[in-house]
Design goal:
This protein has about 250 residues and is α+β, with helices and mostly antiparallel strands. Strands 2-1-3-4 form a four-stranded mixed sheet. Helix 4 links the parallel strand 1 and strand 2. Helix 1 packs antiparallel against helix 5. About 10% of the residues are buried.
Length: about 250
C-alpha cells in the first residue's frame, strides 16, 4: 500500500478544521453550558449551605429561646409555688387566729355560763338558807331574844363612827319630831327608858321617842331618826345578809 501524502495532509487539514469547528461551535457552548451548570450547582450548594446555616442558626435560636422559656417557666413555677405557700400560710394563720378567737369566745361564754350557773346555784342556796333561817329564827324569836338584841343595839350605838354620829345629828338638828322605835314585842318601861336615854346621849340632846309594835318583825328594834333608820332585828340582819351576798357576786 502506497501512502498518499497529499491525501494524508488533506485528512489532517480536514481533521483540524473539524476540531476547530467542533471547538468553536460545539465544544465551547457545551463548556459554557457545563460552566453555567457548575456555577448553578455551586450557587445551589452555596444557597443550600446558607439555608443550612440559617436553619442551624434558627435551630440554635429556637433552642436558646426554648431553654430561656424553660428557665422562665421554672422561675414562674417557683415564684407561684412560693406565692401559693405564702398564701397558704397566711390563710392558715388567719384560720388559726379565727379558731383561737372563737375558742376564746367559747371559753369566755363557757366561763360566763359557769359563773351564771354558779351564781344561780348560790342565790338559790342563799334563798333557801334565808328561808330556813327565817323559819328557824321565827321559832326562836321571843321577848328574851328581843331584849338581847336591844342590848346589842345599845352596844353598837355607842361604837358608831364619829362621822355617822355627826351626820345623824346634823340631819335632825332643829327638829322636834319624835324618834320612832318599833319592836316585835312590847318593851318594858325600864327598857324604853334605857333606850331613850342612850339615844339622847348619842345625839347630844333630849329626845322624845314613840314606841310601837310591828308584827312583821321577828325580834329586835327598828329606830327611825329623821331620814336615818337604825335596825337591830333578826329580819333586818337576815335581809342584809342576803343583799350583801348578792352584791358580792
Amino acid at each position: 500500500m502506497n501512502l498518499d501524502w497529499s491525501t494524508f495532509l488533506l485528512e489532517i487539514i480536514n481533521f483540524l478544521v473539524l476540531v476547530w469547528i467542533l471547538k468553536r461551535f460545539l465544544y465551547k457552548p457545551v463548556l459554557d453550558v457545563i460552566e453555567r451548570r457548575k456555577a448553578g450547582i455551586a450557587k445551589t450548594l452555596s444557597d443550600a449551605r446558607a439555608i443550612r446555616d440559617g436553619a442551624e442558626a434558627l435551630k440554635r435560636q429556637y433552642n436558646d429561646k426554648l431553654s430561656a422559656l424553660e428557665r422562665e417557666k421554672e422561675r414562674v413555677r417557683a415564684a407561684l409555688q412560693t406565692e401559693l405557700q405564702a398564701e397558704r400560710e397566711r390563710r392558715m394563720a388567719a384560720l388559726r387566729a379565727t379558731l383561737d378567737e372563737e375558742r376564746k369566745k367559747h371559753e369566755v361564754l363557757e366561763a360566763r355560763r359557769q359563773r351564771e350557773h354558779t351564781r344561780r346555784i348560790e342565790q338559790d342556796a342563799v334563798v333557801h338558807g334565808a328561808r330556813f333561817a327565817a323559819r328557824l329564827l321565827g321559832r326562836i324569836a321571843s321577848p328574851e331574844v328581843e331584849a338581847r338584841l336591844a342590848d346589842l343595839f345599845l352596844e353598837e350605838l355607842a361604837r358608831q363612827p364619829e362621822e355617822r354620829t355627826q351626820a345623824v345629828r346634823h340631819a335632825v338638828q332643829g327638829s322636834d319630831e319624835p324618834i320612832t322605835i318599833s319592836s316585835a314585842y312590847p318593851l318594858a318601861p325600864d327598857r324604853r327608858a334605857v333606850v331613850t336615854d342612850a339615844l339622847g346621849k348619842w345625839l347630844g340632846r333630849q329626845v322624845a321617842c314613840r314606841f310601837s309594835e310591828d308584827g312583821a318583825q321577828l325580834a329586835g328594834l327598828r329606830v327611825t331618826i329623821g331620814p336615818w333608820i337604825l335596825e337591830a332585828d333578826l329580819q333586818h340582819e337576815l335581809r342584809l345578809f342576803t343583799e350583801s351576798t348578792r352584791d358580792e357576786r
